[in-house]
Amino acid sequence: MPKDDGSAIYQIEQVFQVPLDFAFRWCTDYTPEDGKLAGDGHLRRILQKKGRFIVYEDLYDYPEGWFWSRQTVMLHPPNRWTATADGNYRTWDLVYTLSRVDDSTTRFRFWGRRRAVGLGKRNPSQRAMTQELHEMWANYGRAMEGAYRSQRRRRGR
């Protein structure tokens, strides 16, 4: 019988009004500005970007203290990337997948296994974590769609 490691699985799905190739490039071009785009203002430091391998750290300032995590990302072009995140409150195993709906629309799927560790308490409820992930990716989606429209306008000149 498998040992219960206290992990919880979270999944979301969203649709973005951008082509798949643009979505993949945009989603996997990690920058220090990502916290602002997510809407939560976390600080991001890119430690390494080499080929299909990316390492970055995020730092959140919460009333109960600093929340830190380091993500190690592997890109699997043209439509998938995976990551592990280790932090002082939790760890994640993550899978991100994009699929083409049509020439200008892409479906995004997120799957994550979260374990509370160290300072972390138990995992958030499915409802609370799913809502948080939806909001974060809706913010990213709006920024991505804006970037795509802006790029098309520049090309149209």
The strands making up the biggest β-sheet line up spatially as 1-7-6-5-4-3-2
Number of helices: 3
**β content, as a range?**
over 45%
Q: What's the total count of β strands? A: 7
CATH class: Alpha Beta
CATH-level-4 superfamily name? START domain
The radius of gyration is 16 Å
| Shape category | globular
Number of domains: 1
What is CATH's topology name? Answer: Alpha-D-Glucose-1,6-Bisphosphate, Chain A, domain 4
The residue fraction in helices comes out at 25-40%
Summarize model confidence as the mean pLDDT.
92
Query: What's the order of the H and E elements?
Result: EHHEEEEEEH
How can the largest sheet be summarized? 7 strands, antiparallel
CATH architecture: 2-Layer Sandwich
Q: Structural class per helix/strand content?
A: alpha+beta
Notable features of this structure?
157 residues, alpha+beta, Alpha-D-Glucose-1,6-Bisphosphate, Chain A, domain 4, seven-stranded antiparallel beta sheet, 46% strand
Give a structural overview:
- The chain is an alpha+beta fold and 157 residues long.
- It has one domain (8-156): START domain (Alpha-D-Glucose-1,6-Bisphosphate, Chain A, domain 4, 2-Layer Sandwich), CATH 3.30.530.20.
- Helix content is 28%, strand content 46%.
- The protein is built from three helices and seven strands, in the order βααββββββα.
- It has helices spanning 20-27, 34-38, 126-156, and strands at residues 8-16, 43-50, 53-62, 65-76, 80-87, 90-102, 105-116.
- The chain has a seven-stranded antiparallel beta sheet with strand order 1-7-6-5-4-3-2.
- The longest helix has 31 residues, at 126-156.
- It is globular, with a radius of gyration of 16 Å.
- The relative contact order is 0.23.
- The mean pLDDT is 92.
